[in-house]
Amino acid sequence: MHKKGIVLFITLFFIVAFSILIIKNLDDTDKYIQQSEYQSNINQVLISIKNTQEQFSNLLSKHTNKIKDILEEEGSISGKIPLSQKELNITFNIKDYDKVDVNTPKGKENKALRDLFNENGVYDYDYFVDIYHQKVVDKINNNKQLLDIINNFIIKTNNYQIKRIENQLGFLVLEELYELDIEATYYEAKAKASYVLDTKGEVKYFDISFN
Known about the structure:
alpha+beta
């Protein structure tokens, strides 16, 4: 089967499986809403995001090689699950996780990070590492810590060039990982989640924000 056909097959498989699941959840929710309307909508958004992640994890564990081949050729798999009759909309995107780990032990050179700075014309690499060691006790393990260092770097150096590579900076050891972004809206409730999954579909990192 042509890779574009595989992309379509996997996307349709996912959308059908997930749509059935999410409609059932919405029907069940309608039967026993005991909280405020907004809180109920937020809860439904969270349930929808979690269900989406679980469907992708299941897909990864069963079709790892196919998905790997697709990502090598297409770069990413994107889709939209509009359930307008239920006022629920979900968009998703999955791609290879290829961020550079900024964690740098004292006295050791982080060649991959220095190369990323140099190749993108971002100066003051050594200053970035100094700020890292001032702010980090052990190592960075979440996006909030990383963003804090980036903001401190900008404030102290007045160098906004780091924004060029902000989305390429990470804190996980580079291995075969996938980055899954999900956005869900249900009435006025909206949330955005980012997952890092391994080839078995297991969650290695998770972050969520509300709009």
